[in-house]
């Protein structure tokens, strides 16, 4: 049975507008590069949650 390790990170992006008229979720592409860096390191995204100042992401990968 595989064993897993987990990583939870907070991704903050100062470019998200604070204007209430703009939906910050439309700026999701701003996170792509950061998420791809974790993917390149072998981490699989298992959870993603928007917060007021960015997003919280949880990853897992098989233990070596």
Describe this structure in words.
The protein is 14% helix and 41% strand. The chain is elongated. Strand 2 and strand 3 form a beta hairpin. With 64 residues, it is mainly β. The relative contact order is 0.36. It contains 1 helix and 3 strands; from the N terminus they run E-H-E-E. The longest helix has 9 residues. A 3-stranded antiparallel sheet has the order 1-3-2, with helices on one face.
Task: Describe, in short, the structure shown.
The radius of gyration is 14 Å and the shape is elongated. The protein has one helix at 32-40; strands at residues 4-12, 44-51, 54-62. The protein is mainly β and 64 residues long.
Beta-strand percent range: 35-45%
Low-pLDDT segments, ≥5 res: none
Describe the biggest sheet? 3 strands, antiparallel
State the separation between the terminal residues, measured CA to CA.
13 Å
**How is the largest sheet built, in terms of strand order?**
1-3-2
H/I helix tally: 1
Principal-axis shape: elongated
Helicity range: 10-25%
Which terms would index this structure?
1 helix, 64 residues, mainly beta, 3-stranded antiparallel beta sheet
List the helices and strands and how they pair.
Layout: E1 4-12, H1 32-40, E2 44-51, E3 54-62
Antiparallel strand pairs: 1-3, 2-3
């Amino acid at each position: 049975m595989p064993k897993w390790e987990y990583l939870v990170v907070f991704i903050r992006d100062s470019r998200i507008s604070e204007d209430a008229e703009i939906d910050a979720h439309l700026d999701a592409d701003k996170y792509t590069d950061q998420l791809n860096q974790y993917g390149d390191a072998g981490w699989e995204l298992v959870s993603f949650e928007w917060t007021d100042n960015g997003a919280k992401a949880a990853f897992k990968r098989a233990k070596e």
